[in-house]
Q: What sequence folds into this?
């Protein structure tokens, strides 16, 4: 993976975790750790599942090659989109500012939005993989074409060389015949 992309992914992950931490920093230490670990794990599993589903019908080598990049890029994006809101609602619930029914309604709303985003990501992941497959096919076709042209040029070059050899041999014969004729 490109170094710049890796650095960007690390920064985005840091921002995502920092946003969540800022919201839940007043919770007890154990609860903070559990909340962050569970939210990251669930997000990772959801993105991985969507990516797995998007790979049906795609060349396996392409699917495997792009898995880490796409997963590590979209996990923090989904964390930024959903987890801070969930963390705020959880914090309100813990501080008794939000009733259980309200929390459930908000969780359902976030769940619906999450499903919509995951469906969009599914089609985006499919598109990325299809485009990579298309680029690979074009690259292979270009390589085959270049090899064919190189082979044809080599054959043509060999024919020219053979023709030059034959011409030189004929010239040598003619000169030999001319010398022999002049000597008589």
A:
């Amino acid at each position: 993976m490109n170094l710049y992309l890796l650095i960007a992914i690390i920064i985005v992950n840091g921002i995502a975790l920092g946003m969540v931490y800022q919201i839940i920093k007043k919770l007890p230490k154990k609860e903070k750790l559990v909340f962050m670990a569970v939210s990251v794990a669930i997000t990772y599993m959801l993105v991985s599942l969507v990516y797995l589903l998007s790979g049906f019908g795609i060349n396996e080598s392409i699917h495997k090659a792009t898995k880490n990049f796409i997963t590590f890029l979209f996990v923090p994006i989904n964390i930024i989109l959903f987890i801070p809101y969930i963390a705020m609602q959880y914090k309100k619930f813990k501080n008794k500012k939000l009733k259980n029914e309200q929390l459930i309604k908000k969780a359902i709303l976030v769940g619906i939005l999450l499903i919509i985003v995951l469906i969009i990501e599914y089609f985006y992941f499919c598109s990325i993989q299809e485009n990579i497959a298309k680029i690979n096919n074009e690259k292979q076709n270009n390589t085959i074409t270049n090899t064919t042209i190189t082979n044809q040029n080599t054959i043509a070059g060999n024919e020219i060389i053979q023709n030059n050899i034959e011409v030189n041999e004929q010239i040598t014969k003619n000169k030999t015949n001319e010398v022999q004729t002049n000597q008589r």
